[in-house]
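Workshop exercise sheet. Pairs work together: one partner reads the sequence aloud, the other fills in the structure field after running the prediction. Swap roles for the next sheet.
Pair: D.N. / O.F.
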Amino acid sequence: MNNYIHNRIKSRLNRRNGFPSPTGIAGSILTLGALTLSIFSMAIFSMAFTRQDRMNTIPTEVRAKSQKAAGTFMATLKGVLVQSMAQGIPAAAATCSDTAQTLTKTIASAHGVEMRRISLNARNSQNIPTAQEKALLLKLDSVRLAGRLTDSTVVWEIIERQGKQYALHIKPIVLNNALCLQCHGKDADIAPETRTVLDKRYPGDKARGYSIGEIRGAVSVMTALVP
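Structure field:
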């Protein structure tokens, strides 16, 4: 009882002198902590909602334009490679090196977009991804590792360059044919004559060692949101 009276008197004196009681301090700390957590949670939710909301603002015609350019490029390149393979894998490797870059620019111009191939293990310095493209490639690989990668899987982002906004469309290039391994597989998959061509054209080549089902890279298409 004496302790109770003593604590009550001490609490009143503290309030009279402008000092909060221990109970008040604890309550304030808990309240502040809850408020901080609430603000942080709202910020995270707002960021996620804002990004999704921004993705939804990409016009249908811009999406269709980007997808058509990427699809045309991949189908055309495949046809060119198949034809060159009739002359042997070394010839196909040379075609992929020389013709693919020209083909990319030609199709991009025809569709009114900016387009290139990118890879985390780029053979050609022109195919090294930007920081934003790299992040999207890593996102695609996480989708693959989760077993959710399909033929229709793509990722989108809205980026800004020189004060202008673009829709960035990333379509993965998946090694789904054993023929691909003859240039991009492990040492046992690559013939000596092909290795000679690759070593000559790509010193320090990083684009080997892949297996079927892995993502070799992607087609990156940038389309202006406002022409």
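Discussion prompt: Residues 22-55 form the longest helix (34 residues). What would you look at next?
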